[in-house]
């Protein structure tokens, strides 16, 4: 979009923020959780991986706090024919997806909101009381961040 001068550098910073970093953070979490799975399909308690991941939730906070400004700019841009045409052509050409840009930009917020649910589910299935206590403590920590 910057290349085609459809949005300004300032608008790009507001709309896309640290989206690439958030994608990397999320991918790293998935990779770290996958490493906890043994050959028999069972998982080790992911509390350490989740604690490490919780350190990066600051980036989600910054991104989410910027979503209102981002949506405001997108609403304004959606009134520009060139912007709408570009989005439509890119969606068809590259992704063949039905989701619009605003939905994609909301994905990190949805990830953030799911962490307490995931931790609650893991806690429900855990058998070791020490792990359960650690998971509950982590869940409280993440909930305060959200």
From TrEMBL:
What are its GO cellular component terms? cytoplasm
Q: Name one GO molecular function term.
A: guanyl-nucleotide exchange factor activity
Query: Which Gene3D superfamilies is this protein grouped with?
Result: Dbl homology (DH) domain
Q: Where in the cell is it found?
A: Cytoplasm
- Which residues does the UniProt record annotate as the domain DH? 1-146
Q: By its UniProt entry, which PROSITE patterns does this protein fall under?
A: DH_2
Q: Which Pfam families match?
A: RhoGEF
Q: Where is this protein chiefly located?
A: cytoplasm
Tell me the domain of life: Eukaryota
Q: Does the keyword Isomerase apply?
A: no
GO biological process terms on file: positive regulation of Rho protein signal transduction
InterPro entries (UniProt xref): DBL_dom_sf (IPR035899), DH_dom (IPR000219), Endocytic_GEF_Adapter (IPR051480)
Keywords carried by this UniProt record: Cytoplasm
Name listed for the protein in its UniProt record? DH domain-containing protein
The organism of origin for this protein: Euroglyphus maynei (Mayne's house dust mite)
